[in-house]
Write a structure and sequence with these properties.
heterodimer, A: two-stranded antiparallel sheet, 7% strand, globular, B: alpha+beta
């Protein structure tokens, strides 16, 4: 049951990895997220070095996003112009992120940066989602419908370099999409995520894109970012393990299908509440590892500093 | 220097010497394949013209290739544990296993153990990069390697099949580094090495594992593209299988 990972240079139980891929795939299918934010910490808990975990999880996200994007493409629900503009920022962001990653790895602060970024991102997003889903559930019980407060986007309208995005029926500056792409690209390299849970709210609330093109466009964006980051991580950090990637992807695509079916049985607010609790649980676990007194304050690494 | 000493010993221990040593290993190449989970090798040997067993000891050392190591110490800064200090060691073996007829401190005085690098306590780095006293860092490195099963000592694990014939089993765990290992057999009499023999042992990945590792390092761009292509292909296949009919 053991398989040797040629880049991580360790033997692991391949059944555990397929189960991990299936489990994360199940949750990602159920909640409609890529699952990178769960996969990376779980791989680290399983003993995979965090550099390899971050770089290899991206392949899992590419595969699950590919499958979703094809389905959206068939419905013609993808704004390729918007995806292209975001990609410009995304490429710059991933280059920056991979550079920062390599620098932190040399300084011996890689694990800290990954964990801190995770705690901050998961903590804030988990709390926002929890509040929102609880408010919706409460309103649902009392029979009141909540209308989302329109976000003032005056400052976005005032920006220069405007472009017409026909599919999204928008005429806005290219700067906000480029900035979003940059931020998500950088986080993708550092955290090993696709960034769907940042891109989707940003598209809806900041850019005010129509909901029906948001899913497909964000998936195309995620495929592009994770693909570029994978190649960059492979060339600059030698941290992508193709055997590990294959096992995770295989488990992931199967799990996602089961998850989609399970998710269809739950209501949207319930799903969001569960996802919020899951996000907070992972964040708390990582925070605990940062603040709890370690069993041994010394650690050993066999790579040169 | 250790090698020079061994060579010198081999020269001196000519046929005129009373006691001599021949040894061998069960396999001289260990191949890491996809289902490699660790293996055992058998080191065996014979003492020629054996004399009184009293005062005679056998020590078998398996030494992996030297590997630079960095030990980091975490300190609590603003409530968070942060890597704060580090020491870098060169010249420590990545793997070290010692089997002996009795605890090595009973076999020879520290001076002669240190000369041959016999015993984990007597392994010292050839170069140290540190701002402070590296002793605690070195201890921590050895502690971690022991815990990972890469450094081990096993006194009393040499079986004598007859008065002169002996053997011992050396575990080579899953996490070992590739490269050239050395199997060293020492014959001690009254605390001094009277004969020694060194045999190389190669640990290497073979087949697909080796090709993938080489590709990841030498052709990393195409390797990265291959990973992306594989993920996209699997994503596409899953779409065709599951979504198409919807």
């Amino acid at each position: 049951m053991e398989i040797y990972l040629p880049v991580a240079e360790m033997s692991v139980n391949w059944l555990v990895l397929i189960a991990l891929g299936t489990g994360v795939g199940f949750l990602s299918g159920m909640f409609g997220v890529g699952g990178g934010f769960l996969m990376t910490p779980l791989l680290v808990f399983a003993g995979i070095p965090s550099t390899v975990a971050v770089a290899t999880t991206l392949s899992h996200v590419t595969a699950s996003s590919m499958s979703g994007a094809l389905a959206q493409w068939r419905k013609r629900a993808i704004d390729f112009a918007m995806a292209g503009v975001m990609m410009v920022g995304g490429i710059a962001g991933t280059l920056f992120g991979v550079w920062l990653f390599a620098l932190m790895r040399r300084q011996g602060q890689m694990d800290l940066i990954v964990a801190l970024t995770y705690v901050i991102m998961l903590g804030s997003i988990g709390i926002i989602m929890l509040r929102e889903s609880l408010a919706t559930l409460k309103a649902y019980r009392s029979g009141v419908t909540i209308s989302h407060r329109p976000v003032n986007r005056g400052w976005i309208q005032a920006l220069p370099f405007k472009l017409r995005f026909r599919q999204s029926r928008l005429y806005i500056s290219v700067l906000p999409p480029i900035a979003i792409g940059f931020g998500v690209g950088a986080l993708s390299a550092i955290m090993g995520i696709g960034g769907g849970f940042i891109i989707v709210p940003a598209m809806i609330y900041l850019l005010r894109m129509p909901t029906k093109v948001v899913m497909g466009t964000s998936l195309v964006q995620i495929i592009a970012i994770t693909a570029i980051t994978t190649v960059l991580q492979a060339t600059s950090n030698y941290a992508v393990d193709i055997v590990l990637a294959g096992l995770l992807v295989f488990g992931g695509v199967v799990g996602a299908q089961l998850g989609v079916r399970a998710g269809a049985k739950l209501r949207g607010e319930q799903l969001r509440l569960l996802l919020a609790l899951l996000v907070l649980a992972v964040g708390t676990g990582l925070l605990w590892q940062l603040i709890a007194t370690p069993a041994d304050v010394y650690s050993l690494s066999e790579e040169a500093p | 220097m250790r090698r020079a000493l061994l060579a010198a010993l081999l020269l001196f221990c000519g046929p005129a010497q009373a006691e001599d040593l021949v040894s061998g290993i069960s396999q001289d190449i260990i191949q890491i394949t996809s289902n490699y989970t660790g293996t055992d090798i058998v080191v065996f040997g014979a003492i020629e013209q054996p004399q009184n067993a009293q005062g005679r000891d056998i020590v078998v050392v398996v030494r992996g290739p030297d590997e630079p190591m960095t030990v980091r110490r975490r300190d609590r800064i603003a409530g968070v544990w942060v890597n704060n200090d580090a020491a870098r060691f060169e010249g420590l073996p990545a793997y070290y296993y010692l089997a002996s007829t009795q605890p090595i401190d009973h076999i020879a005085p520290p001076r002669s153990l240190a000369r041959y690098g016999v015993g984990i306590a007597y392994l010292f780095p050839s170069r140290v990069g540190s701002h402070h006293d590296p002793r605690f860092f070195l201890e921590a490195a050895k502690r971690h390697l022991r815990r990972a099963g890469l450094y081990a000592e096993s006194p009393g694990s040499i079986d004598f099949l007859s008065e002169s014939l002996f053997r011992t089993r050396v575990p080579v765990p899953a996490g070992v580094t590739r490269g050239q290992y050395n199997v060293e057999v020492y014959l001690f009499r009254d605390g001094e090495v009277v004969s020694a023999q060194s045999t190389p042992l190669f640990v290497d990945a073979t087949g697909l594992e080796r090709r993938l590792f080489n590709m990841a390092h030498n052709a990393s761009f195409s390797y990265g593209l291959a990973c992306v292509f594989m993920s996209m292909l699997l994503g596409w296949i899953s779409y065709v299988l599951f979504h198409r009919q919807e």
